Amino acid sequence: MTCSSCHGPSCVDEDAVVVRCTLDSSVTLTFCDRHVEWVGEYYGGTDFTVHARSHRLDAVIDTNDCEVDTGLADFIEGLDFRGWSGARRWHSRQLAVSALYESRGYVKLSWTLRCDEYTEYWNTTVVMWVEAGSAKDDLAARLHVFLSGPD
User: How far apart are CA 114 and CA 122, in angstroms?
Assistant: First the structure.
C-alpha cells in the first residue's frame, strides 16, 4: 500500500500531512505512518515517517523523536503572519526547519532531514514557500493533530 498523498512506498498513513510548496507544487514534504511506541507501560515516543520530494529528490526518514511531538507544530503556529526579521529556527535530532518571512506574504520554509543525530552520512534540505496566513495556520493545526492525535 502507498500513501495517496505522496505515492511513496513508506507512507501508509491515511491521515498524512502534506506540505506543498505554493510556488512549485512538485516540492512536497509528507508526514505519515504515525504510531506511538510503548516500552512496557511507558511512553516511548511517537514514530513517524517524513518523506521529502522534489525534482530528482526522494528522501525518507523514519524517526522516533519525542522532541517533535508538539514542538514542531508549536513552532509553525508561532510564526506571525505580519512578519519578522531574520530566520527563525527549530530542530530535533533528525528534522530541522528554518523560516524566513518574505515581503510578498509568504513564509520560506527550509526543511532539513538528517539520517540521525550521531552520524552525518547524509542530509538534505527542501525549500518551499507557504502563504503566511491561513495556509500556515492550517499546516500548524494539521501537524498538531498528526503529532498528538489518538493512536
Answer: 6
Q: CA separation (Å) from 140 to 2, 49, 94, 121?
A: 24, 17, 19, 30
Listed in order, strand segments (DSSP E) in the chain are 17-20, 28-39, 42-54, 57-64, 87-91, 95-102, 106-114, 123-131
Domains of the chain from N-terminus onward: 17-148 (2.30.31)
C-alpha cell of residue 95:
528534522
Distance CA 107, CA 86 (A): 12
Tell me, yes or no, if the pTM score tops 0.85.
no
pLDDT band at 65 (very low <50, low <70, confident <90, very high): low
